[in-house]
Specification:
Chain lengths: 116, 113
């Protein structure tokens, strides 16, 4: 079965440009998460979607970051006016929702974002 | 979430069993033990999780001590492709914001030919 799919796998862009990162979760998973991982660092939580509930945006580092999830499936993370410190690997994960206790999160291979 | 302690690195010969330890002495009664790994340039990969009984799947076995203060992940026949950083996490999905995963430094397992 298909896992979490992310695109593009790599993105190089100039400082100040906007970027969109896409995540296609595992079919049937109602929960979707975005994290980022800087070189040699751990996971940094960004945002969480669960069904039709309001997303938890508490991890978004600034108002340049936004995300949406349309139709309860595909999600897009948008970074406006990119800065060099935005360079990182952006990871998406999905799972059965928290109604299914202790279900693991499954990750995609991420988008490696490089800001020149 | 309870804190975990793992050795920073381990080596294993190809074809042999790799036994990766994890200490979680402050684990709560309803916290599960999860294992993930991250191969270079890939996203974290879920391996296995358990509460108190030993668990086995197609990737690995998880042995949890009776007092639940430590566990061991066993890769029965390690291959070169198992070289990765392995993360042990203890957590419970009890609502709130417990879904925010955090990884410690993990164990770098190097499988040698």
């Amino acid at each position: 079965g298909a896992g979490v799919s992310q695109s593009p796998s790599n993105k190089v862009t100039e400082k100040g440009k906007d970027v969109e990162l896409r995540c296609d979760p595992i079919s049937g998973h109602t929960a979707l998460y975005w994290y980022r991982q800087s070189l040699g660092q751990g996971l940094e939580f960004l945002i969480y979607f669960q069904g039709n509930s309001a997303p938890d945006k508490s991890g978004l580092p600034s108002d340049r970051f936004s995300a949406e999830r349309t139709g309860g499936s595909v999600s897009t993370l948008t970074i406006q006016r990119t800065q060099q410190e935005d360079s990182a690997v952006y990871l998406c994960a999905s799972s059965f929702g928290t109604g299914y206790s202790n279900q693991p999160q499954h990750f995609g291979d991420g988008t490696r974002l490089s800001i020149l | 979430d309870a804190k975990t302690t793992q050795p920073p690195s381990m080596d294993c010969a190809e074809g042999r069993a790799a036994n990766l330890p994890c200490n979680h002495s402050t684990i709560s009664g309803n916290e599960y033990v999860y294992w993930y790994r991250q191969i270079h340039s890939q996203g974290p990969q879920y391996i296995i999780h358990g509460l108190k009984n030993n668990e086995t799947n197609e990737m690995a076995s998880l042995i949890i001590t009776e007092d639940r203060k430590s566990s061991t992940l066993i890769l029965p026949h390690a291959t070169l492709r198992d070289t990765a950083v392995y993360y042990c996490i203890v957590r419970v999905d009890s609502g709130g914001s417990n879904y925010k995963l955090t990884f410690g430094k993990g164990t770098l397992l190097t499988v040698n030919p």
